[in-house]
Automatic annotation (TrEMBL), chain A:
Keyword Cytoplasm found: no
Gene3D superfamilies documented for this protein: YVTN repeat-like/Quinoprotein amine dehydrogenase
Coiled coil stretches, renumbered: none
Species: Borborobacter arsenicus
UniProt keyword annotations, A-Z: Signal
Annotated protein name in UniProt: DUF1513 domain-containing protein
Signal among keywords: yes
PROSITE patterns in UniProt: TAT (PS51318)
InterPro entries referenced in this protein's UniProt entry, alphabetically: Quino_amine_DH_bsu, TAT_signal, UCP028101, WD40/YVTN_repeat-like_dom_sf
Extent of the signal sequence: 1-29
Pfam families, A to Z: DUF1513
Annotated TM spans: none
UniProtKB/TrEMBL annotation, chain B:
Origin superkingdom: Bacteria
Location in the cell: Cell envelope
KW Signal (keyword) present: yes
Keyword Signal: yes
Protein name as catalogued: Peptidase M75, Imelysin
Amino acid sequence: MRSPLIDRRDFLKGAGAAFFAGLSPAASAATLTTDAVFATAYQKRDGSFGAAILSEEGKLLHQVPLPDRGHDVTFDPVSRQSVVFARQPGTFAVVFDHSGQREPLTIASPPDRHFFGHGVFSPDGALLYATENDFDNAVGMIGIYDAHDHFRRIGEFPTHGVGPHELLLLGDGRTLAIANGGIETHPDFGRAKLNLSTMKPSLVFIDRLSGDLIERHELPPALHKLSIRHMDVDASGTVWFGCQHEGPATEKPLLVGRAVRGKNLHLLDMPETILGGFRNYIGSVAANRDAGTIAVSSPQGNSYAVIEAASGRVVARHDLTEVCGLAPDHASFRATTGTGEIVAAQGSAVQAQEFVWDNHLLRITA
Amino acid sequence: MRRLPIIAAGFLVFTAPVLATETPDAGPIISRAVDDFIRPAYRDFHAATSRLNEVTSKLCTMPSENLLAQARSTFSETVDSWSRVEIIRFGPVTEQNRLERILFWPDRKSTGLRQVQAAIQKEDPTATNPDTLSGKSVAMQGLGALEFVLFGTDSESLASDAPYRCSFGAAIAENLDSIAGKIENAWEKPDGFAKSWQNPSETNPLYRNNGEVLGELLDVFVTGLEMERDVRIGGFLGEATEKDKPKQALFWRSGQTIPSLAGNLSGMKALFDISGLAEALPADKKWIAKSIGFEFNNALNALASADGPIEDVLADSAKRGRLTYTGVVTSSLSELFGTRLSAEFGLTAGFSSLDGD
């Protein structure tokens, strides 16, 4: 039998070479050399859900069962605990310690809120911030949880938008960047999108300590169906975001952009061949700050692209079935797929027999 | 939070080659789907909106009990034909907010109801002109708004003397007819969307290969079943009777809740049969198609014996049970389409690709 896996390895080797050729010498020299593990939510082939910690070789080091589908994982380097959030409109998050020294702890969202799948710790690890839906009022919220008190919910503030998705803590340790996807949903109606004709996504900067809105950015009105959903921040502090277009497939808007405080959002022009392959859908965004690159994936387009942060130029494109999870790995990125593959930056691929990987992959420095 | 006690299976069909299977040639399958299901279904819908347009304008000229009854029954026929073709959620219907303008639902905050009532109360002249109406809120120009006009509080006045309400209703009907005509034309055009769907290539901006073409068709079932279960049924059927919300059901005012559920399913069944997906399966996998046919029939039979206004259906434990059962059957169908059938066709049911995350 023909083995597509081998073909893909060969392909990736080739693509990797092209990748280095496209980068400046300084950028290609910088690689992540420290040991790392990777965290991701998964579904087992038997239908059950969980979160896993994987070694660099793709070995399963630790797993935590989940009652339903998870989404993203966030990690606190101070306590060395991770939190995996339920996929929207899920109502749980599970705190776990992959060294196995502490029992997992389940956080329940309040009855009138649900999680959107993303969260972030404060730099001291004391507080956990999560994007949440005040669904009866169709208002996005950030829930605040006290990590030192069994993750008790101690407050919340609005995201000044509808349907917040990913959030990031910026380098100052205080400013949150939040992607308000703009899509209204309500748990009564599953994942149905209730406001596509009037949706208005935004990217906001909020002071996590006061909850005050610092800046709110929108795309031009003609792009009001371009849902801003995933982000990462590069070494210069620029926020890179990826979008999902809710308008007709015949429209091909730009899908990746940059946000900087004090400036309008800027959408990145991309070659048509790359952009067209994304099927109007970016599923995750990851930065390799050491290498100076950003990767954006499209599980619907079965591909991901690597962009040089300084120039905004696409330096590589990889075809990979149902790729979504991305994390920095050595000089480029590690990718995981909805078919169970883990493809390391060097191109070596591992096919999990029992697992398929969820949308996001987090690199944890060992 | 209310949830149906059934598996919330949701898959998006993906266009990726999988080991040891071969994607069948989508060409003849898509040709049959377009020529023998999609085009006729949009033609039927357009014919229904044309009749609706005609009867509502007659009603406004000569209000009578008889014409009001005719307008109401034509509305129900329009819902029936719409429900069959509503499952096609790609292509021309996605342009210019047509899908939402035909039917804005769920309208959780009753935006449409408030806007329609306000227009009637203030006799807003821009709502009785189809040209200006089409530029107004999507919630006041489609089937939901027209249902309130024809079946809502004070709708009996249409039989005698309600000129504003009637001309608002007629404008909605004309607007629907215009949208239906545009979608029909866009599908009929020889060099239009259908051609693009049937001719994948690296330079085709919509479909690059055979897998993406077939994936679009399979997505109709995968998305349609999830909508039926989680949104349409799940929107009003509680875990327990006391958690039911009959007024959150689509078309509760006109008693068309169950027919619209059945319309979606019978549309899917017809599309499955007509497109000949079953023939594309190898002999030892024909059971998948048989199971699909069997489950569609189970669901349709259950709905056929759960007829009546939705409040009555929910109050009758046997009928209510048939709705719960229909939800369970759609989960089974989701598995058959999203996992079994798509795997046989070398398409993965994208786990990491579900929409909106």
